């Protein structure tokens, strides 16, 4: 039986201690004195005690035997120590097996927040026979008891870590089992294929010959479905980690103004003086559900000012490590030699090709314009073109159009890696069939695909993998 404080460390009105396992009810009987039992106790002690029922100290020995909780009920009472001293006024919630998160008996004690009450009640639960839960252990039990498949369990962690609504929606879609079901279906198809091939290896004479074109067709279709599943991997990563977008350019071209306009804040100081921004200024925004960190930087120019020199160095460092670099030009000044120098530094190789009308209007030489993925005209003052800029950032990031409500589950890195292995194995099977290698060779790789798919849904998963997944959870989840 395990126990942990499951609410966050931040200050709050209520903290929750969760106890799960075979002894959860026995522990609750020692730790918790229901108010109804106290009242009976107080009534027996006489009218004076009845006036202050909450202060009545029930005898732990008598109430423990008397009180038997029903499932899915909330009880009001006090948490008490071994001597019957009140630790806190609490609510106790019971969820008996199998109708609980872990599919075991679960008891939750809701104490006052602030940490001290919860810590005392948890300590009391441990004295009464519980063990402190490991990170992710409640969810691990839910998985081991068949309440969740592995991809659902991982979605729980993703949901807790979600930084945006879109990321949370995607985790919720995963929690409802979308990915697990899809992968289980693909794995079953692989197993079916494997059985057919294995049967030919064992009893070749008795069976009709393999329908090779049919097999090739089925494997090709599987490969395609696997690819489609993998496509969501990139999306999932974007939602989780977000993007860093650096704004660079000559001094006084409006970088800080653009950061303020995009983030709807006055984070960065804006003046008409060139060289206003010296240090990196960060602002977080959410574009299309993706958390984006905007980095405003010092204007790039040769400077004798030491502070500005350091600022310029930091600008270049920010541009190097950012996922996307927005080079800002002054539309009035047009393309200047200073811009050409910066463009040469930040676009080493040819990127997308877009010698657009915006680029021509700005006087960007076509050869340079084509080195940028997109050229967009904006005004920080009138907010013109800001949406186009956001859209350009999204499509450059490879984000699919995020239709509200149309968000599907996303694949995380571990799952993506296993899916890639499965996909490669299927490709090898196709190669072996094309090269007319013996059927043994086909089955080796098909078996590898089955194992890789099983790692995603949790059907073929090693203890090591489980450890590494659940150790990343927080304690209490
Ligand atoms: N008309 C107009 N003026 C702008 C726009 N963006 C910025 N400005 C003006 O341009 C001047 C410089 O703006 P900043 O945002 O400080 O420019 P910066 O690139 O951050 O400058 P440094 O930090 O010195 O490198 C300010 O006077 C702004 O009001 C714009 O879109 N339209
Ligand atoms: Mg600035």
From TrEMBL:
Transmembrane segments: none annotated. Residues 43-64 are annotated as: Disordered. Keywords: GTP-binding, Hydrolase, Magnesium, Metal-binding, Nucleotide-binding, Potassium, tRNA processing. The keyword tRNA processing applies. Residues 242-398 form the TrmE-type G domain. One of its GO terms (molecular function) is metal ion binding. It comes from Chlorella variabilis (Green alga). Belongs to the TRAFAC class TrmE-Era-EngA-EngB-Septin-like GTPase superfamily. TrmE GTPase family. CDD domains: trmE (cd04164), TrmE_N (cd14858). It is found in: Plastid, Chloroplast. GO terms for biological process: tRNA methylation; tRNA wobble uridine modification. Pfam families: MMR_HSR1, MnmE_helical, TrmE_N. Residues 43-58 have a biased composition (Low complexity). GO terms for cellular component: chloroplast; cytosol. InterPro entries: G_TrmE, GTP-bd, GTP-bd_TrmE_N, GTPase_MnmE, MnmE_dom2, MnmE_helical, P-loop_NTPase, Small_GTP-bd. This is TrmE-type G domain-containing protein. The keyword Membrane does not apply.
